[in-house]
Amino acid sequence: MTRSSDGKDDAARRGAMAEAGDSYSAAMMRRVAAKSARSLPLTIAPMTLPQTIWRCVGIFWVVEDRLLVARTKLSEAELYGDCLTHSDGHYEQWQRWQRLGAGGLASEGLPVAILSSEHDSWPRGRVVFDAAAVRFMLYADARLHTAAVRETLIRAFGLEGQDAVMALDAHYR
């Protein structure tokens, strides 16, 4: 489901990045990511997000002790098949955050780990609205399938009281 403006999918990007080499140790990243997914509570970032939200779709990561989100109001979401979704992919958003630099990330409450890692180095997922099933789908890396992460996603995307189902997707390891 994730796609980029240049037409490449995340699997192709992961392959290209693996060939180029990673700046982070994969084993270390997995340990930090697994610990992060269990930690309570997760802080929602960036800090500049509006605090009052209602029914959004978008993309997310868990990095260190933070749930990083980029979201779109459901009323402004893009139609993709039977679903309403956030128009940007993980790669594009990560690149946007990397361009902020250390100072910009700090002012947004985003971790500086963004600068030295790739968009698929951390557990991630996507929230979509399935119009055919009339419910929100929380597609996420298996490591994020915890009650704590689900609860934080519900709060971050304004889905309290909505039918929201956590699911696995091949895009998210």
Description:
The chain is an alpha+beta fold. The chain has one domain. Helices cover 29% and strands 24% of the residues. The chain is built from 5 helices and 8 strands. It has helices at residues 10-20, 26-38, 90-98, 101-108, 147-156, and strands at residues 43-45, 56-63, 66-73, 78-80, 83-85, 124-130, 135-140, 164-167. Strands 1, 2, 3, 4, 5, 6, 7 and 8 form an 8-stranded mixed sheet that branches. The longest helix is centred in the N-terminal third of the chain and has 13 residues, at 26-38.
What are the low-pLDDT stretches, counting only 5+ consecutive residues below 50? 1-40
Indicate the proportion of strand residues: 15-25%
Number of helices: 5
- Give the helix/strand class: alpha+beta
Write the layout of secondary structure elements.
Elements: H1 10-20, H2 26-38, E1 43-45, E2 56-63, E3 66-73, E4 78-80, E5 83-85, H3 90-98, H4 101-108, E6 124-130, E7 135-140, H5 147-156, E8 164-167
Parallel strand pairs: 1-3, 7-8
Antiparallel strand pairs: 2-3, 2-6, 4-5, 5-6, 6-7
Q: Can you summarize this structure?
A:
The chain has helices at residues 10-20, 26-38, 90-98, 101-108, 147-156, and strands spanning 43-45, 56-63, 66-73, 78-80, 83-85, 124-130, 135-140, 164-167.
